[in-house]
TrEMBL record:
Residues 328-461 form the GGDEF domain. This is Diguanylate cyclase. NCBIfam families: GGDEF. It comes from the Bacteria. InterPro entries: Biofilm_reg_signaling (IPR052155), GGDEF_dom (IPR000160), Nucleotide_cyclase (IPR029787), PAS-like_dom_sf (IPR035965), Rev_trsase/Diguanyl_cyclase (IPR043128). Gene3D superfamilies: 3.30.70.270, PAS domain. The lineage of its organism: Bacteria, Bacillati, Bacillota, Negativicutes, Acidaminococcales. PROSITE patterns: GGDEF.
Amino acid sequence: MERSGDTLVLSLAGLLGGKQVDTGVIDRALASLCAAFDFDGGLIYELDQYNHLHLKERCLRQELTLRGSFPIDAVDAAYRSYLAQETFVWLERGQKSSAAEKALLELFAAQSLVVASVVDETLQIYGLLVFVQQSARPVPPAGTQQLLKTVLSMFGRYIGVRVYQNKLTFAKNSLESILDNTGIDIYVNDFHTHDILYANRSMAAPYGGISQFLGRKCWEVLFPGQGGPCSFCPQQKLIDENGEPTKIYSWDYQRPFDGSWFRVFSAAFRWVDGRLAHVVSSADITDNKRNEALVEYLANYDSLTNLPNRRMLVKECERRIDKTQDGDEGYLLFFDIDGFKKINDTFGHEAGDEFLVQLGQFFSGIPLLHDAIYRNGGDEFIAIIDGDKTEANIRNLASFIHHRFAQPWRLKRGEAFCNVSIGVARYPEDGRTAEELLLKADQAMYKVKKAGGKGVLFGYEL
């Protein structure tokens, strides 16, 4: 047995000595072991991520009842710990056996079993080598056990390499799957050469796929025709005075070819080979930007007439006041409709809304009021006029507006007649803030309305 044992060891060493794990080699090694030790069958199981052992290879010299897969919990936890520390165990039905050993014999429907575990550095089992004998066999002599220990150790290490490679592949695929489905676009480039080192699928898809990224400069892919690094690249914000990575930098960016918006995060870090790298991750915030724009619009514009509202009026009025210089003048006009309630009472509130929309369009269509008219609320409208306009210009404007109000407003449910009272405040004479000007113009308008409406009054005439 010694000489044949040496031959077996040398034969297996030759088979298992390659640098690449080969399924064909595993099959031949399994057959050699079954023949050398007269086993009826040899089975190799590997553990998956769900803690199930799956049959990967088999060598059957007789027909056997096979378990294609089974949960690792089918083996008692304490006995698994024992298996992990032993080179192999030899089980014999009929001998004095523990409950765990009897369960293992039943699991493989065997009279005799040799079981060797494939373990990681923490002695966690992630594979089993199982040799089945359908007839009872006594425990072999010490020499045979030592030979079996030697060859199973060699075989276990070879299988362990494959299991380790499979674990790495699974981890790599899992990580890539996560990175490809986070909704975050990611790419990594060399910090100094700008050569792209990695890109996930969602990042690469709009540019033609990952093949368009690897081995190219980042700007060559993202900005075709550009001859060098982007002027807005934040790399120098990512390192300290010693060239070491510091904190994450973020900014918003709009992609030029489709207008999509992204929240971009940049950071410097050490790549797997030790070089300094730049990781850029970005999340599509196009919908957020649209929602922000909608919220901004709703906060600053009247939803019925689409005119800017009082909030915008105050902000714009203060802005214009702030930029005026000595000698500059400006006017704030307060319009209040005479007889608006009658339109609502006669035709209904929908007709009242229809009239307000027409009125907003009429005011906006006047060149002097274009981009200067605001809805204050209800049937009140405000205009801000500055520049080289004079009181005569304002009175001519009021006359034009009153002329239009002398004509009917055509609504879906009939013709409506009404008029408008106009109060005018002049900057800086009537106030130096938006609220002061609004108050003065409101007082002037109210005096016109109290006098019967259809008129214009300046603040200094109060």
